[in-house]
Amino acid sequence: MTTPERKAITLPRLHEMHRSGEKIAMLTCYDAAFAGLLDVAGVDVMLIGDSLGNVLQGRGSTAPVSLEDMVYHTTCVRRGVKTAWVIADLPFDSYHVSKEAAWKSSAALVKAGAHMVKLEGGGWTPETVRFISERGIPVCAHLGFTPQTVTSLGGFKVQGRDEASAARIKRETQELIDAGAAMLLYEMVPATLAAEITAASPVPVIGIGAGVGCSGQVLVLHDMLDVTQGKKPRFVKNFMEGCGSVREAIERYVAEVKAKTFPVNEIHGF
Fold first, then answer.
1. Which is catalytic among the residues 172, 187, 251, 256?
2. In this predicted structure, what is the pLDDT of residue 154?
3. Both ends of the chain: CA-CA distance in Å?
4. What ranges do the domains of the chain cover?
5. Residues 184-221: pLDDT tens digits?
6. How do residues 11-50 score in pLDDT, each as one tens digit?
7. Concatenated DSSP letters for 122-181?
């Protein structure tokens, strides 16, 4: 089957999709071969996630992933991408010490091919977001469950369930938007909270375990292809089931995100 050529996905295009209600399909990606496949399958955004520590390196958390790891995999992915928007995670300890250090880390990822960088957390991060974004690198801010700080959160727990934590997430959201965050990502937050934030947000909101009301969705590639062994998070769906190829599974994911049939809040949400 010949796939029609699509125009390159840009930040203004992603913002227009958010405003118009067209859903954004994002997946993690770590190498050139999969990047090419995801691109032709219609994935809008590829995230070189520090989740590579789990799925590629076999580590128990994302914390040991280095900036050098992220630069290497970003370079690989960008070689396979033709049209998708590319986001790279700032790994643990690459943006925490100072905003100047955060800039240097972000610049390294952009030089490797990223269009945007993603960092985790609120509270102390707006100053860093402002520093990076004012100097020309778009930033995606990750709130809710933040894997880099899983220990301090007491494990893999849904965030924003009670009134106080929901209010904190809303406050941190506004602070990050005011600081110049060009995209938001919410992980493991109640679907109603994420939908409320998305409706009021001037920038796209991507969800993972945050319900169908977000501007778009992201999953770890190895999870949705059923490569990851063992118990998977509630928000994961096996898209390989019933599909004859990896490409078909990815196209199915894109189609279901666009049609708002994935995720189903009652099955994949909180």
1. 187
2. 84
3. 38
4. 11-268
5. 999 999 999 999 999 999 999 999 999 999 999 999 99
6. 999 999 999 999 999 999 999 999 999 999 999 999 999 9
7. SSS-HHHHHHHHHTT--EEEEEES-GGGTTTTTSS---S-SHHHHHHHHHHHHHHHHTT-
**What Rg value do the Cα atoms of the chain yield, rounded?**
17
CATH no., domain 11-268: 3.20.20.60
Number of H helices, E strands in the chain: 11, 8
| Contact call for residues 141 and 125 (beta carbons, < 8 A) | yes
SS3 category, 185: strand
**Nearest partner of 72 among 37, 30, 35, 132, judged by Cα:** 30
User: The pTM is what?
Assistant: 0.97
- Of the candidates 39, 111, 131, the one whose C-alpha atom is nearest the C-alpha of residue 80 is 39
Task: Please give the full DSSP string across 23-66, using - where no structure is assigned.
Answer: PEEEEE--SHHHHHHHHHTT-SEEEE-TTHHHHTT--SSSTT--
HSE of 92 in the Cβ direction (CA atoms, 13 Å)?
15
Catalytic-residue membership of 187? yes
Two tokens at 251?
């196209």
DSSP-derived pairing of the beta strands 216-219 and 24-28: parallel
